[in-house]
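Now for our specimen.

. . .
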Amino acid sequence: MSDLSVFFAQNTGAEATEQFVVSERFKDKDGQPVAWELRSMTEAENEECRKSATRKVKGKNGVYTPETNTDEYLAKLVVNSIHFPELKNAELQKSYGVLGAENLLRKMLRPGEYASLVQRVQDINGFNQSMNDLADDVKN
């Protein structure tokens, strides 16, 4: 049997962070593209994003069922994975004429940039592994 201490919080790896150039349009004073800093999150944080994007919808016979707005969920997932730039900054939001980090992100980025960012955030949070990949990892 293996040592249980490998699962203790202090022995786990730190959250993953990475730099990602979301758009060539955001440049520093030297004209170089500025990378955004992304971070991984915990399942508890992911659950909060999912819950805040889920509403109860009244169905047949008055039965309420939970329904998740996928676009809203992904926007919250992305916002919570971005460490830099600080999307909750009031001045940044004001410069784009919006309120809220999700609205800011949609206003800042072009559709392809947003799609690339969503994909990268999903990758850093482990959504890029299929069940077959996980099974192969377990076998090895």
